[in-house]
Specification:
The complex is a heterotrimer of chains A (754), B (155) and C (289). Chain B is an alpha+beta fold and 155 residues long. Chain B contains 5 helices and 5 strands. Chain B has 2 domains: 73 residues, Beta-grasp domain (Ubiquitin-like (UB roll)); 72 residues, DNA polymerase, domain 1 (Orthogonal Bundle), CATH 1.10.150.120. Chain C contains 11 helices and 14 strands. Chain C folds into 3 domains: 46 residues; 116 residues, Uridine Diphospho-n-acetylenolpyruvylglucosamine Reductase, domain 3, CATH 3.30.465.10; 110 residues, Enolase-like, domain 1 (2-Layer Sandwich), CATH 3.30.390. In chain C, a hairpin with a 6-residue loop joins strand 13 and strand 14. With 289 residues, chain C is α+β, with helices and mostly antiparallel strands. Classes of the chains: A alpha+beta (754), B alpha+beta (155), C alpha+beta (289). Chains in contact: A-B, A-C, B-C.
Chain lengths: 754, 155, 289
């Protein structure tokens, strides 16, 4: 199906109020920590104080005697896990490693690694009892960054892990390099030799956290009949169910996950940390168990994203990017699985290039196992690539946006994977940016500068399943399984309203639990509005087909003689016969029973999204502080179903990028202990730290979706790191290659350079 | 402990070590006030105590004996939303919504003192409330929209 | 949190009955530091004494001599909202309005900030250069000391067992003087100071000369650093003097490297903040009130 011209939509493109809105502004919405089944007790986890150690023994006897304690578990209570890979939707996971991450068995691999858990009558008692668990450690030397971890003589996190290389090969010796990969095309050396200018730089970024305001919390009940009920906030109830079933080795159908509202995820609430622990504590204690993290636990015991060291060497020829060679080294954390591959693929997406050579290293270090964080792998890669592009353009005295336009990828351009792009909006976005008033506004004053950068994210498809039930009064229940983080209840209801040609207000969307709807992959990967939207569209068409056949019955004609237009079913054989949607809905019982439609699909045809950002900054040379003066984010969204929610995704991603660029980082001491595991010293932007964010929506409809939808949620975080670094370079005349651009770093480098 | 909560006299039992946040959520069943950090750095637990906006994680429940407490549950009047609540909905100023109760309490406290607060003042006042989803842009717009709505109501 | 008892006495005499009995006691004013410390296990107590029901500790006012007498547990927001305080002591308002965000300021107090004795406290540099004194009270009576004598080391204040901080007294300021407090934080709100400077300057009648100059630096030493600026007294209050003051601060600072800042950075900030705070203080001194 193709949509090229933007049709005159009735509902799509408007800005209705979201269905869960009133509950959220009145405090009635139930989030994970609000769950409180009858008889619930409280649990707390014992976490490793050491970044790297062997566990010699765990003695829970004193803790068991603490008043109010009902149950204690360790890794010994988990069944032996399989060495199986499970696809979570934004990254795959090895189940043995997942199990080990949830409760450590032989070794602890990062400070904060969970070892045991206690359930007690009150949270204070659980906390006190946890302190009575005695663990004997053999402390080992930690390795805390990729370069150290990659050395021959580095302490090894695992004696049995060898580097996985291409073609199924492995390294002879064990290594912290979990995987090495390579992409090559063209002739890189010849391309450099013929370039007008070659620039090479090494870039470093620190580990950062998604920073969702709601800490993880899971309440589990191991019921008398052997079923397990879990109330939690997650980006994917089905993914929780699958992981819990795998870790506890119970049949999937025995696990019911009830997703409550989620207080932010950004990829960090896809893996599970607490659910199986709460479930086993419930089994042992005979009570429902609530296990919540505090903010320190969130920093030290969940899944931040990789710190990186990326070297980029790029050549320009004839005003275009001509050759790129890159070595990308990403921290995976304690277990393999950094997003280095995605970083490599997205980094080059804005450019049409024939000469490419990229080496990627996935490296384990003694930090928490990384998890997805909004366009995982892409922001750090874009920081490196877009900084080098900026340097090439400025040195050659070519406008940085024009330089990108000269090399812009378009439909048919081969991606790094060899697959050509379908219809994309890269050029449209670049043209919008270069013509935007922000780009030509004068910028005056010393230490003020402007920077631009582009970015790309593929966006996902995957599985979605929905049911649409038509009520006799013409209202419609939409049962879907995508947890609603940013307004997808609304955007899916809008797509259904458009398909059925009925008002948005007639639709009631419900996010169902895992017993009540078919499999849905995660809300993440920028897939929900696209894939669940596609399912909603198909289910809507299913409903129309069903209702048409009902009308045909009533009119005694064949189904082909009924058409549905503008909310009315018409009879082709007799123009006096027609029913509105509502009128026909009332006839359900007479014509064969309840009217429903459904769709379960694997959505294909996801459309990648491009963005280009423009930012003005002012640097205070006396203090090294950078203020963001003005920010414009241009993005191709395909079709903006609900423009305000699209703008919201863009603005939110930009501000996360601002934090990542300016102040956020995990700070460690030499023993591998995180020093700043609180919101006081892990500095996320406040309302006073950012200006209004101008979100400029470009619509190049995705031919792969009935309404032209592209994912929008992830690409906004990709350009800010480079855009801000480029602006600071413009403001100070100094190119910074390490993030964050903290005031301390600016003072040390600027004054050092003098 | 006896206190006046959202205009109604309430009493409850608690230990000295329980914060006001804990007691609101776990003893009084008022879960609209949220825990984000438990150390006064995110504002998700904001409530109004004797007319001042405070972080309830940094107040002990025992301290509120005889005092006046307002939480998010008391902001709407039955099904009549406060102009701030309507404005947050109209401006799409929430995504996941976890920080929203804290922001509504803090904005309400601001508008009751400074009905004409400008953008800079709003951003300054709200700097004690963290949001990770919205980037603050629409939150600030919603507060300004509510200012206008409240002014029109009072005319 | 470990369990503890709680009491909210209404008079000072009542407070004293709870002390010196072998129990570990802690005082609480606004609680924004002590509650978090108890929760994180950094401090422990058997009895928490809430001082907020004692009038003397939560009220403030200018006395007949123009001294601002502040009860140690008075919330910062009450102080900086006061029209008279804003007019007469803008330097005090500088520091009171910087500690934490609005929620913190509704509860936190100068007394609590001082007693916490953090090297990066926002209250100390400004109060020192304003010439403030502290009234310390016990069952045996009261004593008064200048603020700079209150800090013995990081996190250690000069209170003896049985004593509590009762009041902060800020003397009436000379009409030709001005005080400014500035601190540096990486964001625009909510952070602990990386470095800070309080500057008080008193000018000659014609506003041209420095008659008095006091500079105190925060977060660049184990306790607040009072800079010896005697060499600048008598000089013209011009850019050269201001630069010289900055240089003195950079020299006097003894910063450390920690997760909030580095030595080179803090030394530079000591200079830059002194210069900017002095410019602000001079401007205030020259303002007609």
């Amino acid at each position: 199906m193709t949509t090229i011209e933007r049709p005159a939509y009735k509902v799509i493109g408007t800005r209705p109020i979201r269905p869960d809105g009133v509950e959220k502004v009145t405090g009635k919405a139930q989030y994970a920590a609000d769950a409180r089944p009858q008889g619930v007790v409280f649990a707390k986890i014992l976490r490793s104080p050491h970044a790297h150690a062997r566990i010699l023994s765990v003695d829970t006897s004193e803790a068991e005697r603490h008043p109010g304690v009902l149950a204690i578990i360790t890794a010994a209570d988990f069944p032996q896990a399989e060495d199986k890979i499970e696809d979570l939707g934004e990254g795959a996971v090895n189940l043995r490693e997942l199990s080990d991450n949830i409760l450590a068995s032989e070794k602890v691999l990062y400070r904060g690694h969970a070892i045991a858990a206690v359930a007690a009558a009150s949270p204070h008692e659980a906390e006190a009892a946890v302190q009575k668990i005695r663990v004997e450690y053999e402390v080992l030397t930690p390795v805390m960054n990729v370069l150290d971890a990659m050395r021959e003589d580095a302490p090894l996190l695992s004696e049995t892990r060898h580097t996985k290389m291409m073609g199924g090969q492995q390294s002879d010796k064990p290594s912290n390099i979990a995987a090495y990969n390579q992409f090559k095309t063209g002739d890189i050396e010849a391309a450099f030799a013929e370039s007008d200018l070659v620039v090479e730089r090494e870039f470093t970024t620190a580990m950062v956290h998604q920073g969702y305001i709601e800490p993880q919390s899971s309440t589990a009940s191991w019921n008398a009949d052997g079923t397990i009920t879990i109330w939690t906030s997650t980006q994917g109830a089905f993914v929780v169910r699958a992981q819990v079933a795998d870790v506890l080795r119970v049949p999937v159908a025995r696990v019911k996950v009830i997703p409550l509202e989620i207080g932010g995820g950004f990829g960090g609430k896809i893996p599970i940390y607490l659910d199986p622990v709460a479930a086993l504590l419930s089994k042992k204690s005979g009570r429902p168990v609530k296990l919540s993290m505090n903010r320190t636990d969130v920093f030290e015991g969940t899944g931040p994203t990789s710190g990186t060291v990326i070297t980029v060497k790029a050549g320009a020829k004839g005003g275009r990017l001509h050759a790129v060679q890159a070595t990308m080294r990403y921290e995976a954390g304690a277990y393999p699985g950094s997003p280095v591959g995605a970083g490599a693929m997205t980094m080059l997406a804005p450019y049409e290039l024939e000469n490419i050579e990229v080496h990627t290293y996935d490296v384990v270090v003694n930090k928490p196992k990384t998890s997805a964080y909004r366009a995982p792998g892409s922001p750090a890669a874009a920081f490196a690539m877009e900084s080098v592009v900026d340097e090439l353009a400025r040195t050659l005295k070519i406008d940085p946006l024009q330089f990108r336009i000269n090399t812009a990828s378009k439909e048919g351009t081969k991606q790094v994977t060899g697959v050509p792009f379908a219809r994309i909006g890269n050029e449209e976005v670049l043209q919008t940016a270069i013509n935007h008033p922000h780009y030509t506004a004068p910028i005056e004053g010393p230490y003020r500068g402007r920077g631009v950068a582009s970015g790309y994210w593929f966006n996902g498809g995957m599985q979605s399943s929905v049911v649409v039930a038509v009520n006799p009064d013409g209202t419609v229940n939409l049962v879907e399984g995508s947890t609603d983080i940013g307004g997808t209840r609304a955007s899916l209801a809008m797509q259904l309203a458009e398909t059925l040609a009925i008002p948005y207000e007639a639709i009631r969307p419900i996010v169902a639990d895992t017993d009540s709807i078919g499999h849905n992959d995660v809300t993440g990967g920028s897939r929900t509005t696209f894939a669940s939207g596609m399912a909603v569209y198909e289910a809507g068409k299913d409903v129309i087909r069903e209702m048409s056949s009902r009308a045909a019955k009533l009119w005694s004609v064949g189904p082909d003689d009924v058409v549905y237009e503008d909310g009315t079913f018409r009879c082709l054989k007799d123009s006096t016969k027609e029913f509105t949607f509502r009128e026909l809905a009332a006839q359900g019982a007479r014509t064969g029973g309840p009217i429903a439609g459904k769709a379960s699909l694997v959505a294909r045809g996801a459309g990648g999204a491009f963005a280009t950002h423009i930012v003005d900054v002012e640097v205070d040379p006396g203090t090294g502080k950078t203020q963001i003066l003005r920010y414009t984010a241009v993005q191709d969204v395909g079709t903006a179903i609900h423009p305000a929610y699209v703008e919201g995704q863009i603005q939110g991603g930009v501000v996360q990028g601002i934090g990542w660029a300016l102040n956020e980082e995990f700070i460690y001491d030499e023993q591998g202990r995180m020093l700043n595991s609180s919101f006081l010293d892990y500095r996320m932007p406040t309302s006073l730290d950012v200006p209004p964010i101008d979100a400029v929506i470009v619509e190049v409809p995705n031919p792969g979706h009935p309404y032209g939808v592209r994912g929008v949620g992830e690409v906004p975080i990709v350009p800010p790191l480079a855009a801000i670094a480029n602006a600071v370079a413009d403001a100070t005349g100094h190119r910074f290659t390490q993030l964050p651009l903290s005031p301390r770093r600016l003072i040390e480098e600027l004054d050092g350079a003098e | 402990m006896e206190t006046r909560l959202n205009g109604v006299e309430r009493d409850f039992l608690c230990e000295p070590r329980q914060s006001l946040l804990e007691v609101l959520r776990d003893e009084l069943g008022l879960t609209g006030t949220k825990e984000g950090c438990n150390n006064g750095n995110c504002g998700a637990c904001s409530v109004v105590l004797d007319g001042r906006i405070v972080n309830s994680c940094c107040v002990l429940a025992v301290e509120i004996e005889g005092r006046d407490l307002e939480t998010i549950e008391g902001v709407a009047r039955g099904d009549q939303l406060h102009p701030l609540q309507s404005a947050f909905l109209d401006e799409a100023a929430l995504q996941c919504g976890i920080c929203t109760p804290g922001f509504i309490m803090a904005s309400k406290a601001l508008l009751e003192r400074e009905p004409d607060a400008d953008e800079a003042r709003i951003r300054h006042w709200l700097a004690g409330n963290l949001c990770r989803c919205t980037g603050y842009d629409k939150i600030v717009r919603a507060v300004r929209r509510a200012e206008t709505a409240i002014e029109e109501m009072n005319v | 949190m470990e369990a503890f008892d709680y009491v909210a006495p209404r008079t000072l005499d009542e407070v004293y009955t709870h002390l010196n009995n072998g129990k570990r006691t802690l005082f609480m004013a606004g609680g924004t530091d002590v509650i978090v410390q108890l929760r994180e296990g950094r401090r422990q107590c058997d009895l928490l004494i809430d001082l907020k029901r004692i009038d003397q500790l939560t009220s403030y006012g200018f006395d007949s001599e123009g001294t601002l007498v502040i009860g140690a547990a008075t919330p910062l927001a009450q102080l900086y909202e006061d029209v008279d305080v804003r007019r007469r002591l803008p330097g005090l308002v500088d520091c009171a309005s910087l500690i934490g965000g609005i929620q913190i300021q509704s509860r936190a107090s100068l007394g609590g900030n001082l007693c916490n004795a953090s090297p990066a406290a926002d209250s100390s540099p400004a109060l020192i250069v304003l010439g403030a004194t502290l009234v310390i009270s016990s069952a045996q009576g009261q004593r008064e000391i200048p603020v700079e004598e209150f800090f013995l080391g990081p996190g250690r204040n000069a209170l003896q067992p049985g004593e509590l901080l009762l009041q902060i007294r800020v003397p009436r300021q000379h009409p030709n003087s001005g005080t400014r407090y500035l601190r540096f934080i990486p964001r625009n709100e909510m952070d602990i100071a990386v470095a800070s400077a309080g500057v008080h300057v008193q000018l000659s009648e014609d506003g041209a000369r420095i008659d008095q100059l006091r500079v105190a630096l925060g977060a660049v030493g184990p306790t607040v650093k009072v800079v010896d600026t005697s060499s600048l007294v008598g000089r013209a209050a011009d850019a050269a003097a201001i630069d010289a003051a900055g240089a003195l601060s950079a020299e006097a600072a003894t910063p450390i490297d920690d997760m909030r800042g580095g030595i080179v950075q803090r030394r530079k900030l000591a200079r830059v903040l002194t210069v900017r705070a002095m410019e602000g203080a001079i401007e205030r001194a020259r303002e007609v009130r």
